[in-house]
Structure formats: C-alpha cells, structure tokens
Design brief:
A hairpin with a 3-residue loop joins strand 9 (110-115) and strand 10 (119-124). The chain has a domain at 1-106. Helix content is 6%, strand content 54%. It is elongated.
Length: 509
C-alpha cells in the first residue's frame, strides 16, 4: 500500500471515472514507484527530485517512452503511454484513455466524459440542488435530468423524443424525423419553428412570427424590422425587401438561377447563373485624414465563382484566382497563397504597446515557419517545422527541438492532449532549454536522458551508466549502480557491488 495506493487514489469520481481509476492503479503498480525518488535505474526507473522556491518538484520515467509521473506544487501528471494519462491541478482533474478515444474531466461542481466526438456525458451540481445530467450518443441517443421537471428530456433519433439546448435551440422535439419536428428559441422572447415533412413549416412567436412555407408552391419568410421575403415555385421565383433595419433598405427580384437584381439608394447586387456571376456594389460617404468628405465604393465581383473573386469592403480587400493565387489584406492580417491550399504567406498584427507582429510561411502540410516580434522589446518568438522529421520552437525564452514532429500543426487547445499521450512513442530526440538556462532532453525513445538544473548536470544511459556532477563533485554509476566512482570536493568515492570501498567526506552545500 503506502505510496502506490496514494498515487492510484489521487482524484476520481463515480461512474465512468471507475475505469480511469482502475487503469491508474494498474499503471502505478507496474511502474514500481510514484514520483519523488531520486534514483537512476535506467530503463527500469529514472527519477529526478529537487526542491525549488515554489516547493518540491519531481519527475519519474520508466520503460523508456511508456511511463511518466511528474509532480509540482500545483500540478500532478501521470501517464502510461499511450493507454492512459491523468492530469490534476487545484481546480480540475483530466483523464484520457487512448486519446482521442476517451476523455474525462472533473471539477468541484462538474464532471464530463467524451467518447471521440460522437458521445459525451456531463453532470453539473451546484450547492444543495440536484445534479444536472446530460448524456448523448450521437446521433441516436439523448438523455437529460435536472432539478426541475421541465429540464428532463429523452430522445431516440430518428423515431421520437425531445432534446434540450441543441444547435442554438433551447428545445427540439421530433417524431419520425424529418416528417415532424418542433424547435424552440428563447433569446428575447419565445419563438417556435414547426415542420411537417421538409416541405411544410411555419413559425409561431418571436421576430419571425407569421413566417410559413408550403414548398415548392410558395413561402413567406419575415423577420420584424430586418427582412420580408416571398417565393413562389420555390426555389425559382423570389421577391424580397432586405436591410429594413438600416437607412438604405433594398428590394430584390430573382428568377433563380438565371438572374437576380437587388437595389437600394446606395446598393446594387446583380447575379447571373448564380452562383457563378455575382456583382455587388455599395456607395458611402467617408472622411479622409484631413476631415474632408469623399465617396467610397465598396464592391464584390465573382466571375465563374469560385475561380475569380475581387472584393473591397470597409474591413478588408480580397483577390482570388483559384487555385493559383489568393490575397487578403486588412489592418490586422496580410495573407497571400499560391497553388491553394499548398503555399501560404501571412502577417498577423496585434496593435498596442505590448502588441506584436507574427509572420508565417506554410507549405501545407510539410513546412511551417513563423517569427513573432514584440513592440515592447521582448525577445522574439519563432518556430520551424519540417513535418514529420523535426521541429524547433522558441517561445517566452524557452527553446525546444524535437525529432520526430508528431503533428503537422500545433493548436494547443485541440492537439496538446494527443501530443502528450502519443509523443513519447515517437521521440527520437528532444532538447528543451528554459529562460533561466535549465535543460531537459532525451533521445532514442527516452532511453537516453540528460538534464541541467542550476549548477547540477545529469546524464543517463540504459543499463550501462549514469552520471551527475556540479561545481564541487562528480559521480558516475556503472551497470545499474553495481560500480560507483566519484571525486571532487570531499575526496574520492568507490563502491563495488554496493560495498563502499572509498567514502568521501560529507560536503555541506
């Protein structure tokens, strides 16, 4: 029991969490120890423990790329790659099993479980009220229970049921979908959409009250103060009044897909053989840098869409000659692309004294290069990736190089868990240097390891040798510690088969 049981029991919840806890117990026992032991028995166990200004920190690895156990004063991460991983902080606990197959998350008042992107379960509790539970196995099974009767729901798609809070609707009910469904919104006032087959529908309440359609015969769609649209022989004949909430409302007549025309005092929109030919223009009076008025014409022209497009608006300019070239320009972004979507050159600008400019080049998916410069004098960030061979990255004073580069793109919100679970199994080489000069690295699937913390250096080879040294002493263990030699301040050190033959004097730090 003792240390092993405490590792397995740290964190956990009822239900699905029993699976995560049981896997944690098996992995912890097989790894032989929790983080915290400063031993080097590579490849069976490599531990590094130290005390910092923030408190005790330690990390243990075992069996090369397979086992991890890292502890800091505010975080604990344990993993048996790629099967299982658990991360616990003061505010939440997260677990993954064969990520992205299964993931779980627990906080003080909520627990959630996800199976791929298809299924999830979530329970939220607050104070003394009954918990609020939602379960979904997409798209077949939906279930929910809450403290109030009106929060309960059940659905078996496509036969029958009710779903709460789905796709922007507060409630959706159906029977033999799509033969009948009812969807409700309640943003500023209740609004209900009804549909009998996909062809008959109407709206009751809200700003779209009175809208209806009997397709393909006729339809009337309206939004109070925004638009009023009619159609007969849908989708061929349309007439509309749009932009009713602006000072320049427009009228539209369309015989789809042959032609359409929409006009207002300052706007004109023409379409021919929609969507291939579209021409839109808007005239506005703007003010130049000297405060003098002038007329500006904003437009969008499509010729044989999507192959050629030219657009000029208040916010941006765009040119597209698909797939050969594309250009986008705004105050925040400059972007060019060649042989779309293969080659991209972008510049992103963040305004302000602490703003930055980031320039990137991509040869999708193989090459990514970025350089980020800060206006307040901070050291620049940068990254280069040649996927899947290697990547180098410098961010906030931390430099890191990896061989292999596991994923072609890094979006931490979506890829960090996958990288943490599977990365060690592809780690031929990794070296990381922090802003204060500390280093941590590994090679050959973490069987070879090295580190530098303060004035202490460490190096480890599986079965053969390990060494550590600082400004005063050095020590080397051979054959898993059967032989130890050392020297420096305090005198020589020699051990054979664990027996001390030469013992150094104790040197106080």
């Amino acid at each position: 029991m003792g240390r092993h049981a405490r590792c397995a029991r740290a964190g956990g919840r009822a239900g699905f969490s029993a699976l995560v806890r049981s896997l944690a117990a098996v992995a912890a026992t097989s790894a032989s120890a929790c983080a915290g032991l400063d031993w080097d028995l590579n490849p069976f166990y490599v531990g590094n423990a130290r005390v910092t200004e923030r408190g005790a920190e330690s990390r243990a690895t075992s069996a090369g790329p397979f086992w991890d156990d890292t502890r800091t004063p505010d975080r604990r991460e344990t993993a048996f790659h790629p099967l299982w991983r658990r991360v616990a902080t003061s505010t939440e606990t997260r677990g993954q099993v064969l990520d992205p197959l299964f993931a779980a998350r627990w906080t003080a008042d909520e627990s959630s479980y996800r199976f791929l992107a298809l299924s999830w379960a979530k329970t939220h509790s607050s104070g003394s009220t009954s918990p609020d539970t939602d379960v979904m196995f997409f798209p077949i099974f939906w279930f929910g229970r809450g403290p109030r009767e009106e929060e309960n729901y059940f659905a078996f798609f496509p036969l029958f049921g009710t779903i709460k809070t789905f796709m922007g609707f507060s409630e959706m009910s159906f029977f033999l979908f799509p033969l009948y469904y009812r969807a409700m919104k309640n943003i500023t006032e209740p609004e209900t959409f009804y549909s009998l087959t996909p062809f008959i529908g109407w709206v009751d309440g809200g700003p779209r009250d009175g809208s209806w359609h009997l397709l393909p015969i006729a339809g009337h769609w309206q939004y109070e103060g925004k638009y009023d649209k009619w159609s007969v022989l849908w989708p061929f004949v349309h007439w509309q009044r749009n932009d009713l909430d602006t000072s320049d409302p427009t009228r539209n007549v369309t015989l789809w897909p042959l032609f359409g025309i929409e006009t207002g005092k300052r706007k004109r929109y023409l379409t021919f053989l929609w969507p291939f030919f579209r021409f839109k223009s808007q005239r506005y009076v703007e003010t130049d840098a000297q405060g003098l008025p002038y007329e500006e014409v904003y437009f969008r022209n499509d010729y044989l869409w999507p192959f050629f497009q030219r657009e000029h608006t208040r916010e941006f300019d765009r040119l597209r000659l698909f797939p050969f070239y594309a250009h986008y320009e705004s105050p925040e972004i400059s972007s060019q692309a060649w042989a779309v979507p293969l080659f991209w050159l972008r510049e992103v600008r963040e305004p302000g004294e602490r703003g930055w400019t980031k320039r990137t080049f991509d040869f999708v998916p193989f090459v990514h290069h970025e350089a980020k410069e800060f206006r307040d004098g901070r050291a620049p960030d940068g990254m280069f990736k040649l996927w899947p061979l290697f990547s180098t990255k410098s961010e906030a004073g931390v430099d890191e190089t990896k061989v292999i580069a596991l994923l072609p793109m890094d979006v931490e919100r979506y890829t960090s868990d996958f990288e943490a679970n599977w990365g060690p199994l592809f780690e031929l080489y990794r070296n990381r240097r922090t802003a204060d000069g500390d280093r941590d690295g590994a090679a050959a699937f973490r069987l070879v390891q090295w580190s530098a913390t303060g004035d202490e250096r460490r190096f480890s080879l599986p079965l053969l040798a390990s060494a550590r040294w600082d400004d005063r002493r050095w020590r080397s263990d051979l054959l898993l510690g059967l032989i130890r030699i050392g020297g420096g301040a305090g005198g020589a050190e020699l051990r054979l088969l664990g027996l001390p033959l030469l013992t150094p004097e104790v040197v106080a730090k």
